[in-house]
Amino acid sequence: MNMQKLLYVISQAPYSNSSGQEALEAILIGASFEQSVSVLFLHDGVFQLKSSRSIKSNLNLKVYTKTFKALSDFGVDECFVLANSLDARGLSISELMIEPTLLNEQQVSDLVAAQHRVFTF
Amino acid sequence: MNFNLLVTGAVYSSQASYSALQFCQAALQAGHVISQVFFYQDGVFNGSGLTIPLADEFDTVSQWQQLAEQHKIDLIVCVSAAERRGVINQQQALENGLNSGNLHTSFKVAGLGELHAASLESDRTVSFK
Question: CA nearest B120 in A: which residue?
């Protein structure tokens, strides 16, 4: 089989619901299938990438977001962020735990069109 | 065409499962194949064997049962998402010292690998949130 392009889209903020953590679990499994895996963060999903250093660990909370830092080690090819989502939320790249590729809306559209499968969370 | 589905909305409180059912029925009628429906996140609640819908409301779970039996479709709830939400089979209940399982007989428990395997083998994956 040819290598399939799998894109995971993360659109919700962390911790108030399980969407991001369960997306991450799906991503890690997907990346183990030896396909071409990418992740796109947009809308409130960009908050998942905010540095987790300031999260206090005494909140009985599993700080799962820090795993986003190691996505490439798990076999994820590329991470993308919709630039406008950062701007709209007053976030700068320097506040993120990784250095993603920034995209505009048209590029997001092109990215999605180029995939074999898209899983949205 | 061969489709596999991903459902992440709970039974009743979300329209996801109902929409997925509608999609399945239309696709099957048009001659397509539905290989698998994977229930993830809150979607695992669709696999509960204990739902009691109101008499004048839609019985989603029974409809999935009928569709799966008729067309040999795999209905899978994700093991990690289901365990966290208390949707488990008898064996999981025994292994964890719990009262009893509640998984509907038409559903299987499996991991995210099953979703990916189905996605890589089908022509399209359609998600219902």
Answer: A4
